[in-house]
Amino acid sequence: MPLPLVAIINWQEVTGWLALAYLALSAGTVFWILWLKRDSTAAVAWCLTVIFIPYIGILLFVFFGYQSVHRPIRRKRRHAAAYKVRVERSDGTVRPVTVEPAAGWQGVSELAQSLGADPLLPGNRVDLYYDGRAAYDAMFAAIAQAQHHVHMQMFIFRYDDIGKKFIDALAERASAGVQVRFLYDAVGSWRLRRRMFAALCEAGGYAEPFLPVKLFRRRLQINLRNHRKTVIVDGKVGFTGGLNVGGEYLGLDPFFGPWRDTFLRLEGPSVASLQRLFLEDWDFSAADTARDQSFFPPVTKAGDAEVQVIWSGPDQELKIIREVYFAAITRAKSRIWIATPYFVPDVGLFDALCLAARSGLDVRLLCPFRPDKWVPFLAARYYWNELLTAGMKVYQYTAGFMHAKVLLIDDEWASIGTTNFDNRSLRLNFELTCLIESSDVVRELEAQFLRDFAISIRVDRDRFMERPFVGRMAENASRLLSPLL
Question: What residues are labeled active site?
Answer without folding.
Answer: 227, 229, 234, 403, 405, 410
